[in-house]
């Protein structure tokens, strides 16, 4: 009964998050379609990508990385114990974030030319100037992104998933509407995208405020609050790991700017397509299981209070038997999340690999986006796909550590992942003695994700073995089913392309719809034949997502 209740609760939470992710990813694709139509995959788009990347990096470094790792676990704990203390802690964190973000924004605004040179040293002087101008607009979004991130963690800890689930959707929709209005009504250029990003950050904050209808938030700076040291303990390793990862991103963008001014635009287009299944599947399921994992996770008391050899315990007075039971339920919840991720992400990866060019052409090839841009984006997409399955299972594994309030381990593994990336990215140039290509950097990213996930999988097994929890069986069935699906798609792709001229949008859409429909039907039919237990939960999830989107 407990397992059924847990599964239903997970499904309900995942439904809301996945519905928001579906909407967000669709609007994200719409955003990329608008960008491709108006600006193609030119150097101007690469300039915007750099200006977009900087506030994203700052948000991830200062707030985003701690939402799941520190804020949700601590807020969840306070929500169960004392609501008054919850609002006080949230007020304190929001106040500190406000001060920190204002200082950072002022610093970046003053040093914008230097930041641009650091991120895109391979650009021409004219393109560097455009990038600096865009950066000064987008950096202002950091303040609103920071507030929005803290409130997201607060609402998720209260199991209010609906509004946070649609923040990214509002963000993407705002960029689309601002770009359309800017180009058609005000004759703006690429700055329309930067302005849309800033407005999107403001609106995604405003969207969540109704969720705090019973909140008692105020500006407060209480440096002696007992939870602050725990925030620091949980957050410091995350910040350390993010510093390393942001350095790696800076290297990646800088190196990419030296492989051609269009490379960053092509890579970002491919990344957007990759993020659709990753956000829909892995992020939704990971965010849904995090509060449950946080409640079940056996926690150790603070080091000064814990005796050598003492078993970790969530609540004072729990015996070894209760702790072991909680650990078993913890691992079952994690295994359930991993099984769902694998069953859904494996067919998505294979289908995207086979249909890369038709999908890119359908989504982006119009206006200033040329067939050559389609070809290059499809190449980048296929290289990214080598790491997609690993990236998908990595998120639940990382969240398992966050739920146990251990953020240091994922941070150290992240440092190792950067080493994987640099080794893979630089090896071709040294070994083959040739200039660096865009594909070297994309493949290096896949190597980084794969290595990180494998290390995390080995470490999670130290909690308690994942063997015997159905992951291997589910994966095996998914591989058999996807083999049949892949054989069918490969055989049908060329005949259908010959039958349907790829030069019209309607034919491109029909090609992708037919292949996706036949491939999906074949895959799920095979899962049914193989009697896959998770299939009924997946269908219920799809049905609920559809209902939420319609509503």
Brief summary of the model shown:
By secondary structure, the protein is mainly alpha-helical. The protein contains 20 helices and no strands.
Structure explained in plain terms:
Helices cover 80% and strands 0% of the residues. The radius of gyration is 23 Å and the shape is globular. By secondary structure, it is mainly alpha-helical. The protein is built from 20 helices and no strands. The chain folds into 2 domains: 1-22 and 261-299 and 319-551, no CATH class; 43-225, no CATH class.
Major sheet, described briefly?
none
* Number of strand elements: 0
Count of structural domains:
2
- Integer-rounded radius of gyration: 23 Å
State the helical fraction: over 70%
Encode the helix/strand succession as letters: HHHHHHHHHHHHHHHHHHHH
Beta-strand percentage?
under 5%
- Which structural class do you get from the secondary structure elements? mainly alpha
The average pLDDT is 84
Number of alpha- plus pi-helical segments: 20
How would the global form be characterised? globular
Q: Could you list the spans in which at least 5 consecutive residues all have pLDDT below 50? A: 300-317
Task: Classify the oligomer.
Answer: single chain
For the record, give the distance between the C-alpha atoms at the N and C termini, rounded to a whole number. 30 Å
Notable features of this structure?
single chain; 551 residues; 2 domains; globular
Topology:
Blueprint: H1 2-39, H2 43-81, H3 83-110, H4 112-119, H5 125-138, H6 141-157, H7 162-165, H8 167-184, H9 191-208, H10 228-257, H11 263-296, H12 320-354, H13 356-364, H14 371-385, H15 388-403, H16 408-432, H17 438-460, H18 471-499, H19 505-529, H20 535-550
Helix pairs in contact: 1-8, 1-11, 1-20, 2-3, 2-5, 2-6, 2-10, 2-11, 2-15, 3-6, 4-5, 5-9, 6-9, 8-9, 10-16, 11-12, 11-14, 11-15, 12-15, 12-18, 13-14, 13-19, 14-17, 15-17, 16-17, 18-19
């Amino acid at each position: 009964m407990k397992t059924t209740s847990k599964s239903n609760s997970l499904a309900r939470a995942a439904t809301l998050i996945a519905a928001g992710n579906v909407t967000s990813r669709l609007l994200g694709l719409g955003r990329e379609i608008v960008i491709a139509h108006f600006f193609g995959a030119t150097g101007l788009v690469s300039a915007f990508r750099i200006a977009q990347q900087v506030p994203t990096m700052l948000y991830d470094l200062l707030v985003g990385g701690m939402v799941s790792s520190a804020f949700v676990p601590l807020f969840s704990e306070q929500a169960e114990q004392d609501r008054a203390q919850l609002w006080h802690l949230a007020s304190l964190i929001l106040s500190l974030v406000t001060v920190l973000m204002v200082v950072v924004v002022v610093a970046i605004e003053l040093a914008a030319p230097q930041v641009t040179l650091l991120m895109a040293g391979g650009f021409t002087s004219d393109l560097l100037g455009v990038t600096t101008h865009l950066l000064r607009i987008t950096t202002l979004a950091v303040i609103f992104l920071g507030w929005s991130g803290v409130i997201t963690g607060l609402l998720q800890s209260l199991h209010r998933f609906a509004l946070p689930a649609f923040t990214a959707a509002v963000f993407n929709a705002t960029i689309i509407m601002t770009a359309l209005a800017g180009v058609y009504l005000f004759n703006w250029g690429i700055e329309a995208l930067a302005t849309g990003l800033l407005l999107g950050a403001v609106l995604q904050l405003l969207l969540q405020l109704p969720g705090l209808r019973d909140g008692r938030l105020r500006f407060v700076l209480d440096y002696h609050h007992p939870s602050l040291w725990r925030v620091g303990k949980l957050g410091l390793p995350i910040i350390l790991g993010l510093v390393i990862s942001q350095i790696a991103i800076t290297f990646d963008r800088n190196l990419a700017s030296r492989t051609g001014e269009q490379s960053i635009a092509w890579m970002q287009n491919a990344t957007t397509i990759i993020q659709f299944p990753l956000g829909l599947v892995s992020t939704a399921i990971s965010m849904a299981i995090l509060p449950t994992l946080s409640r079940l996770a056996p926690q150790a008391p603070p080091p000064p209070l814990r005796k050598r050899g003492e078993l970790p315990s969530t609540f004072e007075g729990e015996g070894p038997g209760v702790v072991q039971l909680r650990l078993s339920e913890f691992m079952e919840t994690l295994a359930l999340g991993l099984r769902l991720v694998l069953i859904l992400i494996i067919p998505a990866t294979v289908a995207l690999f086979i249909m890369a060019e038709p999908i890119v052409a359908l989504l982006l090839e119009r206006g200033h986006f040329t067939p050559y841009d389609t070809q290059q984006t499809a190449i980048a997409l296929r290289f990214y796909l080598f790491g997609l399955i690993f990236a998908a299972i990595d998120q639940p594994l990382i969240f398992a550590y966050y739920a146990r309030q251990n953020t240091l381990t994922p941070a150290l593994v992240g440092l190792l992942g950067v080493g994987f990336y640099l080794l893979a990215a630089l090896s071709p140039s040294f070994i083959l003695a040739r200039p660096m290509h865009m594909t070297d950097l994309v493949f290096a990213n896949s190597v980084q994700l794969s290595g990180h996930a494998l290390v995390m999988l080995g470490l999670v097994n130290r909690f308690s073995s994942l063997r015997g929890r159905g992951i291997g069986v589910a994966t095996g069935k998914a591989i058999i089913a996807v083999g049949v699906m892949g054989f069918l798609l490969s055989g049908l792709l060329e005949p259908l392309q010959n039958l349907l001229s790829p030069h019209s949008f309607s034919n491109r859409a029909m090609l992708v719809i037919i292949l996706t429909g036949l491939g999906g039907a074949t895959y799920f039919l095979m899962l049914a034949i193989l009697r896959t237990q998770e299939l009924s939960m997946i269908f219920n999830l799809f049905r609920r997502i559809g209902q939420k989107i319609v509503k």
